[in-house]
Write a structure and sequence with these properties.
Length: about 230
């Protein structure tokens, strides 16, 4: 089992839901964590909720490459390095393909797909230097299409393909790449308000534990694509 204490991780979309759950698990495992979001006030609030002096709050919109470059520079300035990158930021807009707006389509592609590329592109030199780990949060929608999901499916199918190709490109640089594909998760995704009725779903803490397990795994082993779903349907 690898010791991950004092590793440095960057999580996009880390203010709530999956990103916050992963951040919490990493902090509890002794990892220094940077979280980012589009609104600094939300990131600062999440930092307080994480309750650790080893958390860095950053404002970054993953659709803007320069924002991600700046974020990585700030992480290195604060913590001296960057070992783990988790591309989690994402949005969902759902409508039939003949009704989806150009704005919603572009928002999903720019955030969910181009955003994960921006995050990796901005951090890859640090990952090479420190034999790091890149994890993208995709979705079961990245392999299972559904009605009203054309834009979201396209973005998440893209994330899966991108991360798997990146894995092949970077493995000989001693960088691990994994895409995690969750099913139903208790979160605020797509304007949902979590409640007790969501108890049957995957919890953000479950995905946090999964990320910790990945980072602690034997360096010779790479689960490159992980599908995870609730044990039972609703």
């Amino acid at each position: 089992m690898q010791n991950i204490e004092n590793k440095v991780a960057y999580i996009t979309g880390g203010t709530r839901g999956i990103g916050f759950g992963i951040a919490k698990s990493l902090v509890e495992s002794g990892v220094k964590v940077a979280i980012s979001g589009r609104k600094l006030e939300d990131v600062e609030k999440a930092k307080v909720a994480l309750g650790s002096e080893h958390v860095l709050a950053l404002q970054s919109n993953v659709t803007n490459f320069e924002d991600e470059v700046k974020a990585v520079k700030e992480i290195v300035a604060a913590f001296g390095k960057l070992d783990v990158v988790i591309a989690n930021a994402g949005v969902g807009k759902f409508a039939p393909v003949d009704e989806i707006s150009l704005e919603d389509w572009n928002t999903m592609i720019d955030t969910n797909l181009t955003g994960v590329f921006h995050t990796l592109k901005a951090s890859v030199d640090q990952l090479k230097q420190h034999k790091g780990y890149y994890i993208s949060i995709a979705s079961l929608a990245g392999t299972n299409f559904f009605a009203n999901g054309a834009g979201y499916n396209a973005s998440k199918f893209g994330v899966v393909g991108f991360t798997q190709a990146a894995m092949l490109d970077l493995r000989n640089h001693d960088i691990k790449c994994t895409t995690i594909m969750p099913g139903s998760v208790t979160s605020h995704f797509a304007e949902h308000e979590p409640s007790e009725a969501d108890g049957w779903k995957i919890q953000p803490s479950d995905l946090g534990e999964m990320v910790v397990d990945l980072l602690q795994m034997n360096p010779n082993v790479l689960p490159s694509k992980i599908e995870v779903r609730p044990a039972k349907s609703k």
